[in-house]
């Protein structure tokens, strides 16, 4: 099962350019941590990106919550991604018909495809959403992940919905390289999807709005996910950002090493 191999082994064999780049980066930096930088000003976003940069494989953004967004923010984020060697993941959660998401991805104020290495999409509309995003993203070397399971209480992303979402990914492996999910999705040696798991926290079990947290140990070792996404657990304590990033990075990496060890 590819899930239990090292990130280096998975990088070496991966047919999808985006996944390959991500696994190589994870191995090089020894990190499976992604920080969700859900802050609402340009200054804060750049400060968080610069502070967590050395510790992460992926910086996750919600660009539409930044009140003073401008092109210079994007230019600076891209410069930081090169300085610190991380990928940018705009968490846009596309959810419309193929023709509309194509424009939302490539055009408008944000022009997401021009700077975000990875983005994500809901599967509610069916496979046309993947086709629309692919038209814009594939020529630029981008990849997407599908929301197969959400982290929140009462989420409808379960059962047949999840199964069908995985089937959609299997039919589109040139562009879809993984999932937002809570457990591994690989079922045979022929596939190697990257699972990025949000809802990760070491100190609390949830928030007042339905979010649910599990530990890096549960997510990586017990559930077979590949990347932990941590937001408030890291940027929520502005004076401790680097200390918390170090703590989550170690927890995530140790859980991964233990997983590899158990399957040798
Ligand atoms: O650690 P938190 O709770 O502060 O932040 C979690 C981050 C947020 C959410 O928008 C995102 O992860 N997220 C997602 C993603 C990444 O697609 C899906 C999901 O099911 N739950 C979730 O929290 O930026």
Automatic annotation (TrEMBL):
Gene3D superfamilies (alphabetical): Aldolase class I
Q: What is its EC number?
A: 4.1.1.23
Orotidine 5'-phosphate decarboxylase domain residues: 32-247
Domain of life, per lineage = Eukaryota
Q: Does the keyword Lyase apply?
A: yes
Keywords annotated in UniProt: Decarboxylase, Lyase, Pyrimidine biosynthesis
Its recorded reaction(s) are:
orotidine 5'-phosphate + H(+) = UMP + CO2
Q: What is this protein called?
A: Orotidine 5'-phosphate decarboxylase
Q: Which organism is it from?
A: Phascolomyces articulosus
């Amino acid at each position: 099962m590819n899930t239990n191999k090292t990130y280096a082994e998975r990088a070496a064999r991966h047919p999808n350019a985006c996944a390959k780049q991500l696994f190589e980066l994870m191995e090089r930096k020894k990190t499976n941590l992604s920080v969700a930088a859900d802050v609402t000003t340009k200054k804060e976003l750049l400060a968080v990106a610069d502070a967590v940069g050395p510790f992460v494989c992926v910086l996750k953004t919600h660009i539409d919550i930044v009140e003073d967004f401008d092109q210079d923010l994007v230019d600076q984020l891209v410069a930081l991604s090169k300085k610190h060697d991380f990928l940018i993941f705009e968490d846009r959660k596309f959810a419309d018909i193929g023709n509309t998401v194509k424009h939302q991805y490539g055009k408008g104020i944000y022009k997401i495809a021009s700077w975000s290495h990875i983005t994500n999409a809901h599967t509610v509309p069916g496979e046309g959403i993947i086709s629309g995003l692919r038209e814009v993203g594939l020529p630029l070397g981008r990849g997407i992940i599908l929301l197969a399971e959400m982290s929140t209480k009462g989420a409808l992303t379960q059962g047949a919905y999840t199964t069908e979402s995985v089937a959609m990914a299997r039919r589109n492996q040139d562009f879809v390289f993984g999932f937002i999910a809570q457990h591994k999705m690989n079922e045979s040696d022929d596939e190697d999807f990257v699972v990025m798991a949000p809802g990760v926290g070491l100190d609390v079990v949830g928030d007042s709005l339905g979010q649910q947290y599990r530990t890096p140990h549960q997510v990586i070792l017990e559930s077979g996910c590949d990347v932990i996404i941590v937001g408030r657990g890291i940027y929520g304590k502005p004076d401790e950002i680097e200390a918390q990033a170090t703590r989550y990075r170690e927890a995530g990496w140790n859980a991964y090493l233990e997983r590899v060890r158990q399957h040798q």
